[in-house]
Write a structure and sequence with these properties.
Number of helices: 12
Structural class: alpha/beta
Helix content: 40-55%
Strand order of the largest sheet: 1-2-4-3
Shape: globular
Largest sheet: 4 strands, antiparallel
Strand content: 5-15%
């Protein structure tokens, strides 16, 4: 079950409580559902009871208990627990991962991207002519476009040509055209529209990016490791150049992410040789991975909203680390025949690899099938 589906389920419980007279509130358009924070439990948590407490004129925990009774009736939950001032913690049944895996495999690398076309927002990203700022701007442009925004990037100076030829950072010093975006709307196609021309003006967000500059030249690291070195630290942290970004061992987060992806691809090849293919189904003891995969759309939206590509990079490390314990159990051992459990684990592994590949692509980093 995806966070969006969980949000719909929570809102349905609110609507039932209102219809039955237990709550007197306006049903909100959205319920925020995310992995539980410190002190929480289960697979997901929501603060909807805290949100409704004031308009309902009730303590948050009272509101939470009203909603808990209705959510416990949903077959998709094994338990609903109220913690803290009124957080609802949701534990999913094993079959809840089936819909999520099906969605990921259906949407492929575009899982978590906007599905409604143009969002109605045009964003102008400004950055100094400094290598980290340029790579961050290029990456944010990719993420913002994945969420349906028009984006143009303007550099305050002339970027070094190697930043594009080696690091793949595509920015322009020309303005004020929207940079190479193809979004189809109900009207005529408006890719590359000049926002200063006549006609309806697109809503602009003007964002200036000034991350802490790189202390050294990332070009010797090459495109993938160079971009990761600049993007993985938070904007206020100084990147480690050269660091251990080229070392193939567990201490290197980039290696862990790309290795986990390559392992999922190898498993698909090996399974095909054994004559079986992925088939979504319930998988036990994979709650952390399912939660991380379900959180991917929220992470992309937060990365776009807060202009923090490091958030996406860290999320990919979480997905990779959660996937690794599953992978040894995907293929049958010895004379064991492939079962429904093997096919379900293979589908979940493929979904994890898909999310890793899609996230790396947005960071401008390759996801090789062999490593």
């Amino acid at each position: 079950m995806t966070p969006a589906e969980l949000s719909h389920t929570v809102l349905h419980a609110v609507r039932r409580a209102v219809d039955e007279g237990e709550l007197s509130v306006t049903v909100p358009e959205r319920a925020v559902v995310a992995p539980p924070g410190p002190g929480g439990c289960g697979d997901y948590a929501t603060n909807i009871a805290l949100q409704l407490a004031r308009p309902a004129g009730r303590p948050p925990r009272d509101v939470a208990e009203i909603l808990r009774a209705r959510l416990l009736g949903e077959q998709r939950f094994t338990d609903v627990v109220v913690t803290g001032p009124g957080f609802l913690n949701l534990s999913l049944r094993g079959t809840a991962s089936v819909g999520l895996v099906e969605e990921i495999l259906r949407r492929g690398r575009r899982y978590g991207h906007a599905t409604n076309g143009f969002s109605g927002t045009a964003v102008r990203l400004r950055c100094p002519a400094e290598v980290r700022a340029v790579v961050v701007a290029d990456t944010l442009a990719r993420v913002l476009r994945s969420q349906g925004d028009f984006v143009r990037v303007e550099c305050e100076g002339r970027p070094a040509p190697e930043w594009e030829s080696v690091l793949g950072a595509d920015v322009t010093t020309r303005g004020p055209r929207i940079a190479d975006q193809d979004v189809t709307t109900q009207g005529p196609r408006i890719a590359d529209r000049d926002v200063t021309t006549r006609g309806p003006r697109l809503a602009d967000q003007d964002v200036t990016l000034r991350p802490v500059p790189a202390p050294g030249d990332p070009l010797p690291l090459g495109r993938d490791a160079g971009r990761w070195a600049l993007l993985h630290p938070a904007a206020h942290d100084r990147p480690r150049i050269p660091g251990d970004h080229l070392v193939q061992r567990e201490s290197n987060p980039l290696f862990r992410v790309r290795y986990a992806h390559a392992r999922t691809r190898a498993l698909l090849r090996n399974a095909a040789d054994l004559g079986f293919h992925p088939e979504p189904g319930p998988v036990s003891e994979a709650e952390a991975l399912v939660a991380a995969l379900g959180d991917h759309p929220r992470v992309l939206a937060a990365t776009a909203t807060h202009h923090t590509p490091d958030r996406l990079a860290r999320h990919l490390v979480i997905v990779a680390d959660a996937a690794m314990p599953l992978l040894p159990a995907v293929l049958p051992l010895g004379e064991e025949k492939p079962s429904a459990a093997h096919r379900a684990r293979l589908a979940l592994a493929e979904a994890a690899g898909t999310v890793l590949a899609g996230g790396l692509s947005l960071l401008g980093i390759d996801a090789p099938d062999h490593l």
